[in-house]
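Consortium newsletter contribution from the modelling node. Members have asked for a concrete example of what our holo predictions look like. Here is one, prepared for the magnesium ion complex that several groups have been discussing at recent meetings.
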Amino acid sequence: MQIYRDVDVDSSILEGKRISVLGYGSQGRAQALCLRDSGVDVTVGVRRDGESWKAAQKDGLRVTDIADAVKGADIVMMLLPDEVQGGVYKELVEPNLKSGAALEFAHGFAITFGTIVPPKDVDVIMVAPKGPGNMIRMIFEEGFGVPAIFSIHQDSTGKARDIVLALCKKMGFTRPGVFEESFRNECHTDLFGEQAVLCGGITELIKKAFEVLVEAGYPPEMAYFEVLHETKLVVDLINRGGLSYMWREVSNTAEYGGLTRRSRIVTEDSKEEMRKILKEIQDGTFSNQWISEFDGGMVNMRKMEKDEEGLLVEKVGKEIRREFFNRE
Ligand code: NDP
Ligand code: MG
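And here is the predicted structure:
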């Protein structure tokens, strides 16, 4: 894997270029502010009646509506939620995008699943940072950055590579380092990771383990500490040094218990299901389902969120975080 760092990148290609960041949420805010602080000419494009309009103004950025921000821009950064990108693109971006501009993404979803099909006369690039917006901004302000994946889907001007790397540098991502991958690989692995492990897998593990303890008569507060609170402590160890490092750091009893029991929890059947989940991502089943959920007003998603909020582990957690950590 070739890793590109600050010394490998000449960012002078961005001089005099007009960059518009569409969306001012998690990624939009962080990326726009980092670019601005690096001396880049940034305009934020958002809805006139939305929350973000005021937020971007308050941060001292130039703000205009989306269509206006796209007109004349050399680089258009699509930092809107994936599920709205297709609609916003058709209505406001496509009619205003100038020939020879670069269309930039932070995730491969729209291109991989075809919710956006850009014209042939623009560059299509991606900078997918490995961190949420608030972390990107915090680490940038500390003088460093988070790693990122960059990608070139379409190089119409012959300058796509210089532009994408320059953006990486200006946002601090080449300080730790960036590497190249395809839109497709970034998209498939990102979705799979969040479904199987990061967001899907881990919450279901926590939920079911909490229920088992409480149903067996143990106090919910204890169950909360053991199966939810402490996940971070162990994940931090894994993140720092990998699996073996974590096993060395926990007690011998935890190590023996974990190593002998884990494959009964996540079984070969679970692995088979993971393969199916990956297949649904690859063949578009998942993205179609998600886009129609969005188009249908997210009725199921709102219901699932409500169910989750009603769980005992959530109620107990609120109390505990207030009592012990002074936050909700
Ligand atoms: P957010 O949900 O935080 O984006 C919110 C922004 O989008 C707001 O400015 C909001 O404006 C605007 N917006 C929402 N709906 C519409 C609409 N229908 N029309 C116009 N504007 C709208 O997005 P993220 O930052 O989470 O994600 C942006 C991209 O970055 C995605 O491609 C995502 O996959 C990717 N990404 C996200 C990461 C993350 O940690 N969040 C990590 C890596 C990549 P308003 O205030 O007007 O509602
Ligand atoms: Mg991810």
